[in-house]
Design a protein that fits this description.
By secondary structure, the protein is of the alpha/beta class. The chain is built from ten helices and eight strands. Strands 3-2-1-4-5-7-6-8 form an eight-stranded mixed sheet, with helices on both faces. Strand 2, helix 6 and strand 3 form a beta-alpha-beta unit. Helix 7 packs parallel to helix 10. The protein is elongated, with a radius of gyration of 35 Å.
Length: 322
């Protein structure tokens, strides 16, 4: 600035370094203070969100209660352990039995299997030999259980799994012929103390009737229900169901845990091969109900040193399937 005498006065302001340092330190403390309370706020929010049940959780509990017949407040089991309502089961059986497919099962046959699945403690393990008209029905009836299908035709198995990815299907190559049934059954009975013993891990079996090329985990599962509806058994040169019935008998008697009893159903029981193998490996003393088309056996697991499939006890009272 210029004064009246023409001199210019210059004002110089000097900032001491201590003042700058004090200002920076104050800002750092302020930033730390704000950050601390921000973190505390976020943690409080997350904790509160986890401890307050959500609307979806309440709805899921209510649905589980309706399905299981309890109340929403008393339902502690997850919905995944629930069974299908009786009305849904009856509807499935009704429409499946009214199919135009000439090879479908009757209402009485399907209901017999359905009743066992309904009583099975969840999660129920169901093994089915054969892909049939009722495949989707068995998967649905064993709601939230484990259902595995064994199919002889690898191309059909791949096709079926492609259009129904929720279905677990494994293909197997049968080496038997239906017309060899008598010879194969006799040989298996003679080797019941060795390679065809009733209690064994079939993965390592040399018995000709034993299926040893299934996925490893199939042999480790304690199956609650086994349904034999395959492979083809209506042709002289077809594989017949000797191997599937024998394998079902061994799996049922070799259980390591779970329910010691296994329900085994054999379809097309009127045929010679099915009836022969049922008598020899599932045993008539274990037959609880039957008609010309379906036989229902209940097998107990056996001691690992057992050498006989049947003990020759008096045949139990057998009811007729309606």
């Amino acid at each position: 600035m210029k004064n009246g005498s023409g001199n210019t006065n210059t004002k110089l302001i000097l900032l001491h370094p201590y003042i700058q340092k004090q200002t920076s330190t104050t800002r750092l403390w302020l930033l730390a203070f704000v950050s601390f309370f921000t973190i505390v706020f976020l943690l409080t929010l997350l904790y509160t969100r986890d401890t307050i049940p959500s609307k979806n959780t309440s709805v899921a509990a209510a649905v589980a209660a309706v399905v299981t017949g309890g109340s929403p407040s008393s339902s502690s089991s997850p919905i995944s352990n629930s069974n299908l309502p009786t009305s849904a089961i009856n509807a499935l059986l009704h429409y499946a039995s009214r199919s135009n497919d000439s090879f479908h099962m009757s209402y009485g046959e399907m209901k017999s299997i359905s009743d066992v699945l309904r009583r099975c403690a969840p999660p129920c393990n169901l093994l089915v030999f054969g892909l049939t008209h009722e495949t989707l029905l068995w998967k649905s009836l064993n709601h939230n259980g484990r259902t595995v299908f064994i199919e002889e035709n690898r191309y059909y198995a791949a096709y079926f799994e492609e259009i129904h990815p929720e279905i677990d299907v494994f293909d197997v190559q049968y080496t038997t012929k239906a017309h060899e049934a008598g010879e194969l059954v006799t040989a298996a009975k003679e080797a019941a103390g060795n390679e065809c013993r009733p209690v064994q891990n079939l993965l390592f079996s040399d018995c000709k009737l034993g299926l040893n090329d299934l996925p490893n985990h199939v042999y480790d599962v304690d199956w609650d229900v086994i349904f034999v509806d395959g492979p083809r058994g209506d042709a002289h040169e077809g594989p017949g169901r000797m191997s599937s019935i024998f394998t079902a008998a061994v799996l049922a008697r070799s259980k390591k845990g779970g329910n010691p009893k296994t329900h085994v159903f054999v379809h097309d029981y009127y045929r010679d091969v099915e009836r022969l193998c049922g008598d020899e490996f599932l045993c008539r003393e274990n037959l609880v109900e039957s008609n010309d088309l379906l036989a229902h056996y209940v097998l107990d697991k056996m001691d690992k040193n057992s050498t006989k499939f049947c003990n020759g006890r008096k045949k139990r009272s057998v009811s007729s399937l309606s």
